[in-house]
Amino acid sequence: MLTVTGLCKTFPGVRALSDVDFTARAGEVHALVGENGAGKSTLIKVLTGVYRPDAGEMACDGSPVRFHTPLQAQQAGISTIYQEVNLVPLMSVARNLFLGREPRGRLGLIDFRRMHREADETLRGLGIRVDVRRPLRELGVGAQQMVALARAVAVDARVVVMDEPTSSLEPREVRTLFDVIRTLRERGIAVVYVSHRMDELYEICDAVTVLRDGRVVHTGRLAGLDRLRLVSLMLGREIGEVGREGRTKFSGSHAIADQPVLAAHDLTVRHRLSGVSLALRPGEVLGLGGLLGSGRSETAKAVAGALPVDSGRVVVAGTPVRTGSTPAAIRAGISLLPEDRKSEGIVPGLSVRENIALAALPSLTRFGLVDDARIDRIVDTFMKRLRIKAAGPHQKVGELSGGNQQKVLLARWLALQPKVLLLDEPTRGIDVGAKAEVQALVDELADEGLAVLLISSDPEELIEGSDRVLVLKDGAVVRELTGDAVTEDELMRAIAAVPSGGHDD
Amino acid sequence: MTDLSLTRAGVDRDRVLRLLQEYGVYAGVVVLLLFNFAFTAHFASAENFRTQAVQVAPVLIVALGMALAIGTEGVDLSVGSVMALATSLLSLYLGYGPWLAVVVAVVGGIVVGLANGALVAFVGVQPIVATLALMVGARGLALVLLPQLKDVRDPGLASLGSGDALGIPYLVLIAATLALLVAFVVRRTAFGRQLLAVGDSRPAARLAGLPVRRVLIVVYVCSGALAAIAGVLATARLTASDPTSLGSLMELSAITAVVVGGTPLSGGRVRIGGTVAGAVLIQLLTTTLIKHDLPPSWTQIAQAVVIVGAVYAARERGKR
């Protein structure tokens, strides 16, 4: 269906793609995997006409094509579904579906009746049931993505490129998405599927292409490829090495002190948290489990003073901390690595160096003047220790890869020498290599006596990383997993066993 | 950069635009200077340079404060009215001696800045609205305090306005000192770093535990104080207090200088050197057109062209 051969693309100083061959066949879901910086995004952008290749051929249905703009690619039948949905939130589902090609009645006015009927049929055909008259923004992110997909199909796309479509979906929404993808496959559409999640790849994909450092290192059927081999291809390491280290980088157990360093009592925020209590001891990694919207991030934010609470207390090392004040929490030794790295974490326009020094600045100044020598020492230490890959301390953080941005943020907090570290999805959207490094670091920090709160929607990471897990549901703690009960099975059971019902599918 | 074979047409264009963004304003100043040396009679005289510098000084001082406000993704529209308030206070308190009068005038600017900052930081009003309110309010207060033009006869102030040291007018010395001071604060102090972080990503700055509100208030206080100083200096030069017209449209001149100097309106970056050059560029542009007997309307059109050019260069940078 869509074939590229010998593709090369160079950016100033970086060879992003060299001699890449890639084929998306009709009726096949093709996984495109690789670490961040392997060239996945560049390849997608070339396929969809955002970038122009320096060399190489592209052919659609056997005839050579060249896209100069994304519009040309779309007209050739290539649609892209991005992580962030590119639709108009205030318009109705049907309008979004037919945007730019609305069915016209007499007088050239939009024939709403026909539009609603056809929209309903299209969505039903894909197994999606929503009211097409409702504004799009009232739908969940998952449903919005389905609408984007439906739109792609409706405009006669023959190739659909999906860039990490499940990163913000709940498990149930993922199921629906996969059903839609299967429908697309049956209709003979070629799907290019980019994801970091191993389980999903094996569930939905037929073929796989592995990119590393801008080259294709493997391409073929996915069924014959075992997971370990796939990971080793992506990482460029030997199987024995990966196998010995396990799939996550956590060691599992730490020497835990008796007295808690952090205690939170009855944290309550209207509609979001009801009476969450937790205690965290030095050297312990406490996991927070639960579904999306169960109050995990809210708990972390409430403890860190970033979310004002209606009632509840936070105590660090025996001293009460004023709630609702980030500076107070930071002074008490609580650091929060926020979930939304891009908008709440990094300051993209500032350099790596200034981002690392940002929170610790007051202690790095003399009479209000910045002590450059000390900052340089700290920045240098952390860039080495966390292996931050940047052109230098003066590169802008916005230009780094996700994994390195996350490391810069970790360095920012570690420079404060906190007592409690709250990590909200520390490995979301970062590549396998950086993920392993971050996981190893969390272990190391706990070994050094730091109290760590870990939030992760990856059950494997949560279970292997934590000594103990609190399971949240609807803003309240429903179960605590300790000792031998810290397993994925128990976690699932705890989430599913909630008496409120409705989740028994 | 070393590998020339990589340099393609597209890359080249990006680089030219980036260079234009970084150094365009300085190039503009140089071009205008060269043009004037070649084609304008009596341009290359010490007296002319003196006049130009004295004229640009108040705009420059106001633009310094404006650059700080814009660096936090805000703006301060009240600066012109603060100048008017300063001149009113100055002439009102001149009886108690020039020094005290100057102090009172600057305190007036600080109070307006505090009000701006409190509205922005605590009440959460958008900067453009908050400072618009103070722009109207401060001008009104200035007119209540001093309803009409009044001569300012004070030897101290007169020498401040027209005296010089080593041939350099006091006004210019003060403006240069303030520019260096603000540049130093932005580059070298913790406050400067925090200001940039607040402007670049406020949620991130808040979660990093920065004193976001304090930073915002200090920024608007600085802007108010600098505008008041500019008002005092302008009064000293004119030897008259005119709260009706002093500083009117000054906020626009200041924003122009900042934007032309390459400070993006989206915050997170403050270019003091560029702001100085921006103010000088606009001043030279005006002079050039006037000296060649073109009507003032041409000056406005030329300014518009320069602004659009600067914004275009900034936009290209932002898109990449």
TrEMBL record, chain A:
The record ties this protein, via InterPro entries, to:
AAA+_ATPase, ABC_carbohydrate_import_ATPase, ABC_transporter-like_ATP-bd, ABC_transporter-like_CS, P-loop_NTPase
Q: Which UniProt keywords apply?
A: ATP-binding, Nucleotide-binding, Repeat, Transport
Q: Name one GO molecular function term.
A: ATP binding
Q: Which domain of life is it from?
A: Bacteria
Keyword presence, Transport:
yes
Q: Tell me which stretches of the chain form a coiled coil.
A: none
Specify whether Mitochondrion is a keyword of the entry: no
What's the name of the protein? Sugar ABC transporter ATP-binding protein
Species assigned in the record = Streptomyces pyxinicus
UniProtKB/TrEMBL annotation, chain B:
Q: How is it placed in the membrane, per its record?
A: Multi-pass membrane protein
Keyword annotations for this protein, in alphabetical order, are: Cell membrane, Membrane, Transmembrane, Transmembrane helix
Q: What is its main location?
A: membrane
Q: Which residues cross the membrane?
A: 23-46, 52-70, 100-121, 128-146, 166-186, 215-234, 296-314
Which organism was this protein described from?
A: Streptomyces pyxinicus
The protein in question is named ABC transporter permease
Q: Where in the cell is it found?
A: Cell membrane
InterPro entries per record: ABC_transp_permease
